[in-house]
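Can anyone check this?
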Amino acid sequence: MNRFWRDYNLSIVLAILFLVSWILQTWMGWVEFVSQQEAHSQTAAVFGSDGYIWQWGQSTFENWQSEFLQLLSFVYLTSVFVHRGSHESKDSDEAMQGLLERIDQRLARLEQHGLVSENSGQVVEAARAAALRGR
């Protein structure tokens, strides 16, 4: 169970927050629906042609529609446009590649002058591989 929590805690927390907010939306909507029905001297019902289920469905799908549109537009726009320095942009990858190339060049000069051994190049290659994996 601990491993499951460690591997999926973000999904679990988001699912719990989603369910809690959906339950609260349902309950608050029901309370409002009942008060509206009482104001019109009508009986509140969950199902039927005038039932709460229709208002609940409408508000649920309106929320989902706006959230999906917002998320979809964000994903699309971040795939097309770039904000320099953001995680979505490639400029940080290019900067990392340039830094690794400069380190390689300095190490090669130091090896030529006999200031470092050749196996230190293996250390740089391991660091390069680790940096590229960490993207």
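Reply from J.R.: I decoded it. The CA atoms of residues 3 and 80 lie 37 Å apart.
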